[in-house]
Amino acid sequence: MNPQITLTEHLKEYTRHVWQTNSEQTFTENIKLFTLQSRSMTYALAVLEDGYVAHVYYGKKIVACDLTYLLRLDENPWTPKVNRRDKATFMDTLPLEYPCHGTGDYREPCLMITDKNGMSTCDIRCKSHKIYSGKPRLEGLPATYAAEPQATTLELLCEDQHAGLEVVLIYTVFADLDVITRSVRVTNIGAEDVNLRRVLSVCVDFDSDKFDLITLNGSWARERVVERSKLHHGKQGVDSVKGESSHQSNPFFALVSHNADEDTGEAYGFNLVYSGNFFAQAEVTQHKKTRAVMGINHFDFNWLLEPGESFTAPEVVMVYSANGIGEMSRTFHDLYRAHLIRGQKKHRPVLINNWEATYFNFDTDKLLEIAKQAASAGIEMLVMDDGWFGHRDSDNSSLGDWFVYEKKLRGGLKFLVDEVNKLGLKFGIWFEPEMVSPDSELFKKHPDWAIQIENREMTLSREQYVLDFSRQEVREYIYGMMRKVLDSANIEYIKWDMNRQFTEVGSLALPANRQRELWHRYVLGVYELMERLTADYPQILLENCSGGGARFDPGMLYYSPQIWASDDTDAIERLKIQHGTSLCYPVSAIGAHVSDCPNHTVGRTTPFKTRGHVALVGTFGYELDITRIPEADKAAIPAQIADYKKYSPLIRDGDQYRLGNVFADNLWDSWVFVAKDKSEALFTFVQVLGRPNYRSRRIKLKGLNPDYNYKNTKTGEVYSGSALMNAGFNVTLHGDFTSEVFHFLRTYEQNDLQA
Ligand code: DGJ
After folding, report:
1. Would the CB of 355 count as within 6 Å of ligand 1?
2. In this predicted model, what pLDDT tens digit does every residue of 651-707 receive, in sequence order?
3. Contact (CB, 8 A) for 468 and 529
4. Does the beta carbon of 566 lie inside 6 Å of ligand 1?
5. Is any atom of ligand 1 closer than 6 Å to the C-beta of 547?
6. Residues 526/527/532/533 CA torsion (nearest 10 deg)
7. Is residue 497 among the annotated active site residues?
8. Nearest-atom index, ligand 1, CA of 545
9. Which of 155, 110, 112, 116 is nearest to 132 (CA)?
10. Residue 481 neighbours by CB distance under 10 Å
């Protein structure tokens, strides 16, 4: 099906009360209705005669009809009957697509300025529109992409003549997915400077307050905890003011009906394709409606727009599901796998990373020892983590000095990589390009390259400063050093880390009236460098990381097909982290490794088998000293890898159904991956805590074809899809932290069906 955007014009007659005369007047208005249709969703908006762009409807698919009655332009619900504040009340109740500050809409605005006279009011009216096949790129920003027949785009060109601004609202609707993306481009078409104080990316004025708000919050080592609460009057939401999307909140939220669960109810998901400060808010208004907004955080933000200049707000992805939170997640996964993650199809070798194995304490011999044993266990790549450069023996030096630490890497990098390659392993390397240590040659040479405020003390965090990536010469220098390293040996993977938040946010290169642009200019600088890196080294697999999972966002996924999800590698903690992450990000993107026990972060000991089953729901690898782990664990690695290779196409490309919820029930967790054609399923069960005197648990599978028969490939037992889904599958496990996976293949055998 082609996604459709239709324009219809409707002549409407309605009555408006006019304050001065205390009389009623009848207006005839020509309303343009734009209807965006995807597979099972409709989004409608209207341009009124005076140019206001009003929101009409967002939800389950509606066959083409005149929806303008939903605007309620002819209703008069107020008492006393005559509304004495006609225009202002109108503005404060009209559902708007892109609300401005200052003309009577007291809900959260998307656009706010300071003009040449110091005024903050703005008011945009639509002048014209464009509808075309395909999807535009966003200048300098990551965004979802689509070939022409897969998406259709509507652009509404609006203007504020008084401020001299053109504001283009960009909507793209996808063909086979219930997805709309939105962005905004603001251009100064006047003769005077304008300061943009906020340019959010999206507003949806829902006609109800009957929603729960779902957000992903946390901290270092416990990222993306799912929180759900009922909306109430006032404003509630999440944001980041740290310079990165952050451990504490993710640029995602969903509004779901109160009854919504994994399979039923409505879910509206919002995800910002951006990696810096963000703002996401749901506001319940006086009339019990909900305004949802999202975009770059306006906190400490200002952007000077000189005549002729444009500013583009990052894209928001909006997903609609009429069938619960599970379907919302699967739509995000499908969209991101096919239309955002450019490296999605890249081979993901099973890697071993030396961070938890050695921390800073390694040398060539140690790495080769690890590589040797890794190779014989079937591991495919060695990743050398932090500590190989400058004179870095701990986290207190050398960031910015991207040349080999000869004391550790005897014989140099090429020697090490060649030796690793000879063992049959690929080689990957760690960088933290955005940072500088005070104890580094770089900082001694260019102290002004760090983000700072002149003559103000600079705050250290993890013993490091943030480089001013808004500056071309800084990016150029760092990239030059990275290139030298990358060109010196056969490097096939990069882990790009980022380990601190921003303080004293100032650039010694920007004029005073552009200082507040630094937050965003920094992010654009990071994107520019990642773009260059991935274009120049297309064969390299890039994995993002930020002190664990502080930059797990769609912006980063555009450049790197996988992101390290958390520094917490404990299998039980990972159940929560990976469950929360899966709300909008596909498993193929979730960096997950088997580590040693007791776990370095929480001190828990779990079976090696369970660690393997949990890491399978991710990119799968190892983060341990293979030369020191128990023999039994080492012996289990080849079979784990064989399982990963066998199941990874299904896990990477299939549909994920969450069967358990460790946030609600911490006794067990479970999930199943089902092939798109329903011919295969991989079902995992993890028992967090064992129970005395209980028999098996019966777990109902999801996503199968009820009319197919499925064979348990281990036992040969055959079950009908309807039995597995409606009655369930019996799982018997003994003990804490135990787990099992069950693989089902479609079979045509009819006999001995088990129920
Ligand atoms: C934080 C990352 O999350 C870790 O995996 C590791 O790479 C360290 N940084 C190294 O400093």
Report:
1. yes
2. 999 999 999 999 998 899 999 999 999 999 999 999 999 988 888 999 999 999 999
3. no
4. no
5. yes
6. 70
7. yes
8. 3
9. 155
10. 17
